[in-house]
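Design request, tokens follow.
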């Protein structure tokens, strides 16, 4: 009997072994038989249907390397994703989910072998197709599981950062009032100043988390574009950073009157993040340079710094959220309020204006971030971070 036919004819014995294995997993707890078999029959039937599909030699070769894309009508769609979400809800971790597929594969092949099938020229091809189908089902399950975990984490961060703002505002207000409620001694003033400073640091962290969750939850980066002089904004930021870092060599150059329809506060945030990153991740004697210039339809902002280039392995993920570079040659204390979101947010701001943010890093030229902004791009303001429709769809 061909393998696909054997699976169809022996669903119940296979499901019994699946259930017995799942019952031995700690997270299964007191789950009943129906819950333990959750989507297992659908996964097996989808595997059988997939094995029976005809394949060209090119498709077979591409699929063996995992390069073949699947359409919405592919038999494997659906069951594995729903099974993964169900297992997550039942408390299974990712390794336990993967172990179910490993056990399923072993059970099917063992039971088929024990049935004593007559040798067939298609046996090797059948086993290959079966393994490919199980591998694809597993890949879909893992992707669905991790996506839901990411969504849950992002929603948690959104709620947490949103709810932290009120108590933080109370702390900041109390710090402002403290010198007026007690005798104005130097100690009281110092304590109030320290509380205010730390509250400001926490406020920046919360603001970054809110921006992060807006983009991750599909609400988009909120922007309010108005006519903005980018040259003037660049000069203001240059003055601020030059004052804040008197020991660093910072250079600024700009064309006059580089204007466009942008959100000034958001661009201030993005360029400030880029300048802070350049200062943080370069040696003390390295030049940091900010340039602003315009083209016919775009404005260009570049922030460059000298020093060793970013390692290729880090360059590929430098815009990933909550990731910090190693800064191995020049380790420094992270900037107050930095939680590894600066570059991610800077790129999100550029993209919210219809633009882009890219990076190059070489031994000869150092590291340079280039932000390109269309002058007249019309954007819509971002939605609220926790819009009801999006929460219900998660």
């Amino acid at each position: 009997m061909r393998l696909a036919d054997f699976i169809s004819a022996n669903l119940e014995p296979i499901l019994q072994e699946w259930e017995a294995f799942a019952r031995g997993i700690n997270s299964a707890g007191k789950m009943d038989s129906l819950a333990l078999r959750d989507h297992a029959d659908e996964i097996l039937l989808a595997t059988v249907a997939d094995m029976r599909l005809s394949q060209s030699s090119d498709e077979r070769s591409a699929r063996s390397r995992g390069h073949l894309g699947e359409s919405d009508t592919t038999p494997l769609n659906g069951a594995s994703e729903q099974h993964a979400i169900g297992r997550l809800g039942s408390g299974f971790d990712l390794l336990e989910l993967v172990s179910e597929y490993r056990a399923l594969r072993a059970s099917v092949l063992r039971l088929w072998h024990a049935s004593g099938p007559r040798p067939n020229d298609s046996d090797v091809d059948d086993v290959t197709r079966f393994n490919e189908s199980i591998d694809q089902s597993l890949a879909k399950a893992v992707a669905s599981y991790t996506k839901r975990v990411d969504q849950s984490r992002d929603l948690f961060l959104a709620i947490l950062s949103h709810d932290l703002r009120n108590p933080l505002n109370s702390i900041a207000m109390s710090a402002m009032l403290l010198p007026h409620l007690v005798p104005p001694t130097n100690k009281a003033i110092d304590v109030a100043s320290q509380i205010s400073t730390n509250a400001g640091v926490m406020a920046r962290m919360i603001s970054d988390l809110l921006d992060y969750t807006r983009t991750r939850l599909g609400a988009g980066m909120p922007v309010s574009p108005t006519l903005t002089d980018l040259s003037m904004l660049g000069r203001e930021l240059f003055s601020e950073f030059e004052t804040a870092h008197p020991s660093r060599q910072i250079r600024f150059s700009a064309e006059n009157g580089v204007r466009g329809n942008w959100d000034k506060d958001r661009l201030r945030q993005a360029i400030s993040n880029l300048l802070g990153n350049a200062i943080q991740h370069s040696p003390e004697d390295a030049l940091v340079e900010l340039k602003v210039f315009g083209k016919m339809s775009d404005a260009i902002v570049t922030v460059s710094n000298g020093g060793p280039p970013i390692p290729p392995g880090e360059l590929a993920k430098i815009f990933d959220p909550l990731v910090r570079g190693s800064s191995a040659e020049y380790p420094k204390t992270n900037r107050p309020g930095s939680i590894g979101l600066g570059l991610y947010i800077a790129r999100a701001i550029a993209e919210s204006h219809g633009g882009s943010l890219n990076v190059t890093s070489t031994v000869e030229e150092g590291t340079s971030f280039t932000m390109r902004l269309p002058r007249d791009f019309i954007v819509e303001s971002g939605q609220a971070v926790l819009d009801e429709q999006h929460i219900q769809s998660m």
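Comment from the thread starter after seeing the answer: thanks! The chain has three domains: 3-153, 155-216, 226-374.
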